[in-house]
Amino acid sequence: MKIAGVQMDVRLGEKDHNVSRMIEFLKTTTAAGAGITIFPECAVSGYCFRSREEADKFAESIPGPSTDRIHQACRELDCHAIFGMLEVSDDKLYNAAVLIGPQGIIGTYRKVHLPFLGVDMMTTSGERGFEVLSAGDVRVGLNICYDAGFPEVARCLALQGADLIALPTNWPPGAECVADFVINTRALENGVYYAAVNRVGTERGVTFIAKSRICDPTGRTLAEATSHDEEVLYAEIDPERARRKHVIRVPGENEIDRIADRHPEHYGLLIQSHQLETPKQKAERG
Q1: 57 among known catalytic residues
Q2: In the chain, which stretches have pLDDT less than 50?
């Protein structure tokens, strides 16, 4: 399957404009043969809100008006779309990602790891954990931005059989190392395709670094974007390649399997709680 990543500019608080542009991009990517198109984090709403009250004006339920419009486009174009938006549910605000196909909403993800930055200062950490969804024949795991900095997340998705991890993101200055190296590492260490799709443009003094990237299961970069322009990335992915974890370089002499070769009995520290006060908790405490 061919996949696409749309590194687009997003207008803060202009949902109708942003969704209309996403639909136009979907027409472009599907015409080029892409079965899955990935958009940035908060592509519907923008990111740099300064208060919960302000952000709430641009949050929606899922399903809701914006997901309905994207679903209609996916049905007409016979494609899948992954994009970020603000979700409101039970008086809580979430930074969410949605996977929609011709049949409707396939699944959603609520960002678990929250930096003390932008709208994430007001959102609630997702409580659903990490789930693998199906987009046609491709098993997709959804993450958002800061989640990529935690290797346990990608490993959880790989253990559930993900072929592709999609990361809608809004990388600000300071995230260059993640864009340049971490995405390749997450792909390599889990033997999966990894697509990180950032945005361009400036919101309230924050200029996003772009540098979207798609990597293959060996960590090789298949496609990458510049740090300043709107661009569409394309890459061909083979789900069967992601499912072959046993890599044979020289039969009987050089073989590895990054899943089977693990020793979870030594990883107990990873599931122990080491609670430290986060920047968000410090701010709430005053």
Answers
A1: no
A2: none
Q: Determine whether 48 is an active site residue.
A: no
- The pLDDT assigned to 271 comes to 82
145 is catalytic: yes
Q: In the prediction, which pLDDT does 191 show?
A: 97
**Catalytic entry in 15, 41, 48, 156:** 41
Give pLDDT, residue 175: 96
Cα 45 to its chain centre, rounded Å, is 16
What whole-number distance in Å separates Cα of residue 4 and Cα of residue 233?
A: 5
Give pLDDT, residue 88: 98
Spell out a b/e string for 196-209, using b for 16 or more CB atoms within 10 Å of the CB, else e.
bbbbbbebeeeebb
The pLDDT score that the predictor gives to residue 162 is 98
pLDDT at 283: 77
pLDDT at 227: 86
pLDDT score, position 124: 97
* Domain 2-285: CATH superfamily, name plus number: Carbon-nitrogen hydrolase (3.60.110.10)
What are the extents of the domains in the chain? Answer: 2-285
Q: What is the model's pTM?
A: 0.95
Cβ atoms of 237 and 191 closer than 8 Å: no
Q: Which of 48, 79, 145, 156 is catalytic?
A: 145
